[in-house]
Design goal:
Layout: E1 9-20, E2 23-34, E3 38-42, H1 49-56, E4 64-69, E5 72-73, E6 81-84, H2 88-91, H3 98-107, H4 118-131, H5 146-158, E7 164-168, H6 176-193, E8 196-200, E9 213-218, E10 221-226, H7 227-230, H8 233-240, E11 244-249, E12 254-258, E13 269-271, H9 273-289
Length: about 290
C-alpha cells in the first residue's frame, strides 16, 4: 500500500526490519496506525519494544524497509513529537525545579544561556497545568514522588506542543494510584487535544480503557490490530509465552489475567467487579513473587 493511501496514518511501517550485529531483532513490519489514536507496543522482555519506538523516532537505523512518522521519514518530524524515555526519572538533574525541567522541552540547549521569555513561561505553565503539577512549579525534582516526576516528564514533552506523544514504559515502578493518574492525563490528551499517543507497555490492564489498538511483537515480527482483536486469550498466550485469560466484567470492561486452567480448558468468562478485584490482587502477588 502506498504512502498516499496511508494519508490519515500517524505512523506507517513498510517492510521495516531492524538488526544488530547481523542479528535480526524484528522484521516484516507492515502496518499503519490511524492519527488521533492511543496505541500500546507490547511484547515480552527483549522482543524489541523500545527498539521499535527508537526506530520510529529515527534514533536507530533500519536494516530494511522504511518508517514514516507524521508524513515524514523517521527522524525528520522530531519538532512535532514529544518523547518520554524510560530513563527520564533517573537521568534528569534532580536539582532542577519542575518549571526548569518543563522549560527544557521548549528551549532545549538554550536553557540557562538566554533569558526565558514570557511566552515560553506561559507555554510551560500550560503544560504543567494540564498534567497537574503547576502547584509544584518551584519544587525540586528530588523532592517529588515517582508519579509526580513522571507527570513532569510528560509536561516537558507537551511543552513543545507536539502532535504525537511517545512514552517508553511510563507506568513502570509506579504505585496503582500514580499509574491511574498518568493514564488519565494520556486520556485527556487524546480526547481533549486529539493528540496521537503511543506507549511501550508490559502490562496492558491499566491502559485498556483508553487503548484503540496495539502493536504486538510476536515471532520476530511487529503486527498492529485494534484492541478488541488483540484481546484474545490464544493470541496473548502465544505473545507472553504463558497461559493468559481475557475476562470481562458485567459492565463490559475487559481484563487480562494469568490463566489457572490449561489451554484445553480455557474459555472466555464474564466476572463481577469483585471477582476482577480479586484476580488483580492475585496477579499483583504473583508478580511480586516473581
Amino acid at each position: 500500500m502506498s504512502e498516499h493511501e496511508h494519508g490519515n496514518a500517524v505512523i506507517v511501517l513498510t517492510q521495516a526490519a531492524i538488526a544488530r550485529s547481523g542479528h535480526s531483532i524484528w522484521s516484516h513490519g507492515n502496518f499503519a496506525i490511524p492519527t488521533g489514536t492511543v496505541t500500546a507496543i507490547v511484547g515480552t522482555n527483549g522482543a524489541g519494544k523500545t527498539t521499535l519506538m527508537k526506530a520510529e523516532l529515527g534514533l536507530l537505523p533500519l536494516s530494511e524497509g522504511s518508517i514514516s512518522v507524521l508524513g515524514q521519514p523517521a527522524g525528520k518530524a522530531t519538532a512535532q513529537i514529544g518523547y518520554v524515555p524510560q530513563s527520564y526519572t533517573s537521568e534528569i538533574d534532580a536539582n532542577l525545579t519542575v518549571e526548569q525541567s518543563v522549560l527544557l522541552g521548549i528551549n532545549g540547549t538554550r536553557f540557562g544561556l538566554h533569558p526565558t521569555t514570557r511566552s515560553e513561561r506561559e507555554q510551560a505553565n500550560q503544560a504543567m497545568t494540564f498534567t497537574g503539577v503547576h502547584d509544584r512549579a518551584h519544587s525540586r525534582l528530588s523532592d517529588l514522588s515517582g508519579g509526580l516526576r513522571q507527570r513532569v516528564a510528560i509536561a516537558q514533552a507537551l511543552a513543545g506542543k507536539p502532535k504525537l506523544l511517545m512514552l517508553d514504559e511510563p507506568l513502570a515502578n509506579l504505585d496503582l494510584a500514580s499509574q491511574r493518574e498518568i493514564v488519565q492525563v494520556l486520556a485527556r490528551l487524546n480526547s481533549e487535544l486529539g493528540m496521537s499517543v503511543q506507549v511501550v507497555a508490559h502490562d496492558l490492564n491499566m491502559l485498556l480503557p483508553i487503548l484503540d489498538g496495539a502493536i504486538y511483537l510476536l515471532d520476530g515480527h511487529p503486527h498492529y490490530a485494534g484492541i478488541h482483536d488483540v484481546m484474545d486469550s490464544e493470541l496473548l498466550t502465544h505473545l507472553y509465552g504463558t497461559d493468559v485469560e481475557v475476562v470481562t466484567t458485567a459492565q463490559g470492561e475487559m481484563f487480562i489475567s494469568p490463566s489457572v486452567q490449561g489451554p484445553s480448558m480455557r474459555r472466555h468468562h464474564t466476572h463481577t467487579a469483585t471477582e476482577i478485584a480479586r484476580l488483580d490482587m492475585e496477579h499483583s502477588a504473583q508478580e511480586r513473587q516473581a
